[in-house]
Amino acid sequence: MKANMKKTLVSSAVAGALMVGTFGFSTAKAELEFNVGVFSDYILYGLSESNNNAVVQGGVDYGHESGFYLGTWWSTLGDGAGQEVDLYAGYEFAAGELDIDLGYVYYYYPGLDDADFGDLVATVSYGPIYGSLNYSIHSEDDSEVPDGSYFLAIGAETEIMPELSLAGELGYGDVDDGDDWIFWSLGLTKSAGMGDISLTYAQTDDSDLGDPLFVVGYSVSF
């Protein structure tokens, strides 16, 4: 996913394991990685970010041996909303048995007026378990994520059979306009010779925000 800093920044807790804090490139040496995928929906914080439309997503990540990284990721949105383009950078380091990731993500919507915003992101991982915080800053006037909004999540991903991984996530979102909700997801990813096939279920505790989501996807990295 592109780097796993966000969505969760890929579609779903499985395909992007919503901010897992370990990246698609190794920090043992400088490395560049590309990824692209197709998904039946775009899940973010338990909600459909594409109004239940299928999407194409992709990105490129660069990681340096020092722990610094940067990258970009994009997704179609459907219904004439154009695209989302994410630009991010950060620093990943170890503290004992913990992996810590501190970064910044800028969300750019070229087809929408005054909808852009930025997130400070912090993720702490211990083995397959992670916890993350996204905190919104300098949102534009018509952004759906005003300054002061935040999203907390805890989750884990583990291999349950050869080439088959199970991922789960539980989170809480508080948008600084009065809305808040709990979200969760569960998914499977099967690694095949030509890429990864994923199936994800996601839901929130507020039915007014949207129906439960079942999303299938296929992605490749190179």
Entry keywords:
globular; 2% helix; mainly beta; Porin; twelve-stranded antiparallel barrel; 222 residues
Top CATH class: Mainly Beta
Q: How many β-strand stretches?
A: 14
Q: Report the end-to-end length measured between terminal Cα atoms.
A: 11 Å
Strand percent estimate = over 45%
- The CATH topology assignment is Porin
Q: Secondary-structure element order, as H and E?
A: HEEEEEEEEEEEEEE
Structurally, the number of domains stands at: 1
Low-pLDDT ranges: 6-28
The whole-number mean of residue pLDDT values reads: 87
- Secondary-structure class: mainly beta
Helix content: under 10%
Strand order of the largest sheet: 1-4-5-6-7-8-9-10-11-12-13-14
Number of helices: 1
Radius of gyration from the alpha-carbon trace, in angstroms: 16 Å
Largest sheet: 12 strands, antiparallel, barrel
Under the CATH scheme, the architecture is Beta Barrel
In CATH terms, the superfamily is: monomeric porin ompg
Q: What does the model show?
A:
It is a single chain. This protein is 2% helix and 59% strand. It has one helix spanning 12-15, and strands at residues 31-39, 43-44, 47-48, 55-63, 68-76, 83-95, 98-108, 117-126, 129-137, 150-161, 164-175, 179-192, 195-204, 213-221. Mean pLDDT is 87; it is low at 6-28. By secondary structure, the protein is mainly β. The protein starts with 11 loop residues before the first helix and ends with a strand. It has one helix and 14 strands. It has one domain: monomeric porin ompg (Porin), CATH 2.40.160. It has a twelve-stranded antiparallel β-barrel. The longest helix has 4 residues, at 12-15.
